[in-house]
Task: inverse folding
């Protein structure tokens, strides 16, 4: 009803009248039934009184006038509209409003204009401050995002070099850990071959939307953990770890694309036997790999 919408706009800021529309054929069907609305459009008027701090409605007033804007406006003004804050209705003012209004009444024309200019200048300053604060908040928000981003790393197969790195990458998801042979066992060429396999499986998992992280480390560097996880069978070895569930599973097949992919798929389907994660699991610090062949340690002469 355009006329009802116009009325609602008229009394949008009113402190004594509120205008609302109810869809009697839809969500408001039960409300309309409660108050006996049968024909459309219909208008029900309510007066409210304050009881113990709560607004309590009385029985709705029957409205039998016209449904046009002018008729409904006239009825509201005559029966519902209460005092508003104005020179004619000071009783509708809050105490602070009445104080300002009466001070203004007592001013000369010149003083009133000067006061209005002062207040308008104050409004402009506040608006400028608001814009500046909004700009600063926006910049600070961006700074927070950038600082947070700086602590993140691209989702890729990463070397596990300390316990903090492990937990940052794996505490919120299942992680596949590849224990690779020592760099002296096959050199950089062999290691890169193993990493290529892990990268391939990782990309496939990421493309399939599987929330799995991949990390690698040099076998033998984490002797205590390897022993607790029963990895004495040698390297390469693949283990899937879930910190939250405190469980891990070991890949018992070949270390190739099909083998590791099959292991990951079986993990996701719950077909891999899981064991309790060893208590106090903590990875020791390791040196990052420089991508080169390893150097044999120099033996001291006797």
Result:
């Amino acid at each position: 009803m355009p006329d009802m919408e116009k009325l609602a706009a008229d009394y949008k800021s009113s402190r004594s009248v509120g205008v609302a529309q109810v869809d009697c054929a839809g969500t408001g069907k039960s409300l309309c039934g409660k108050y006996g609305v049968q024909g459309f459009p219909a208008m029900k008027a309510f007066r409210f009184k304050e009881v113990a701090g709560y607004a309590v409605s009385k029985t709705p007033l029957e409205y039998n006038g016209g449904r046009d804007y002018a008729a409904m406006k006239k009825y509201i003004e005559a029966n519902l509209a209460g005092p508003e804050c104005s020179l004619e209705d000071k009783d509708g003012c809050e105490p602070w409003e009445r104080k300002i209004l009466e001070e203004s009444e007592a001013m000369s024309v010149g003083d009133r204009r000067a006061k209005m200019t002062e207040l308008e200048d104050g409004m402009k300053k506040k608006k400028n401050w608001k814009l500046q604060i909004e700009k600063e908040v926006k910049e600070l928000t961006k700074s927070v995002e950038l600082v947070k981003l700086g602590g993140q790393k691209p989702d890729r197969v990463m070397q596990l070099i300390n316990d903090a790195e492990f937990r940052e990458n794996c505490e919120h998801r299942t992680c596949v850990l590849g224990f690779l042979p020592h760099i002296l066992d096959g050199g950089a060429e062999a290691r890169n071959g193993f990493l290529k396999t892990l990268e391939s499986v990782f990309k496939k998992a990421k493309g399939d939307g599987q929330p799995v992280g991949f990390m690698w480390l040099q076998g033998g560097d984490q002797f205590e953990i390897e022993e607790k996880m029963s990895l004495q069978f040698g390297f390469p070895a693949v283990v899937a770890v879930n910190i939250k569930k405190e469980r891990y599973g070991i890949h018992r097949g070949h270390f190739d694309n099909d083998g590791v992919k099959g292991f990951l798929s079986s993990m996701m389907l719950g077909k891999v036997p899981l064991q309790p994660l060893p208590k106090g699991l903590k990875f020791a610090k390791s040196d990052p790999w420089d991508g080169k062949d390893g150097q044999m340690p120099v033996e001291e002469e006797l």
The chain has nine helices and ten strands.
